[in-house]
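dumping this here before i forget
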Amino acid sequence: MTMSLPELDPLDARLIGLLETDARRPYTQLASELGVSVPTAQARLQRLLDAGVLRIICWADHVALGYTSEVTLALNAHPDRLPEAVERLCASGPIRYLVLCTGRFDMIAEAMFRSRDELSRFLLDELRSIPGLARIESMLRLRHVKLSTRLLTDEKDSRPAENSALDLDAMDKALIAELQMDARRTPLELARKLNVSESTVRRRLQRLLGRGIIRIVGVTNAFALGYRGVASIGLKVAPGSGHEAAEILASYRDVRTVGIYAGRYDLMAWALFREPADLDHFISTQLSQIPGLRDVEVMPHLRIAKASHRFPIG
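structure:
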């Protein structure tokens, strides 16, 4: 998972911090807050984007978009068919994330569906038709406890907002679709694209952002900030202790996501670590403080095969 990334200086770090909280800041505001010229702010941001240090995305609440079923898939493949299986999984529309890992499983994937029927068809038909897959385990995510995209700034609340698919109309969905193509489009550009007034776009954006239906954020490549690894962590806990355990797990800064599941694991998390020793400390010291903990399984990631924040919007 190593890659060539530029060295970051304090100005880069300050710029990333501003974009982590609100990536819709205009260049004039970024320049003012950084104490530099507008051309310098533009050049710095473009350098970070071109180098793969930063992505500007429109994160959207999948439930508000109608995706009511979310599963994590734990997969094994026959060694000689693994590349083919990875290629087919990456091409699958419902799969949003796919990583190759060490441990019990070869791959961990996350997929989203509009209904349980759609999920059933995927598991019974599409997934089982992929050559080379030797083992498939699916775990239904019951609740998000933490979903954090920030690395340099703190979040008051990293819990996803709870919305309903009924919250969005056709104009909302069209606006989100445009922002998922280019999250820094201005209200004027969006208004021209959608053939509505700029004031209409501003009102819609304010509502979508205010309710947590979308976030326009900068997502930083963790490896550019000194992290050297990511791991999926599955936990089994005693009955009745799941919610408390999830809240404690979510309180750790380097834990990026936490979910409550039905399946092999009661809880699953993704965590960053700078060195293998940090991961060892996290497992042996911090995880041991979780009440009711019965078993922990750690699966360090080898490679990200697919990572997509976009959803088909209909």
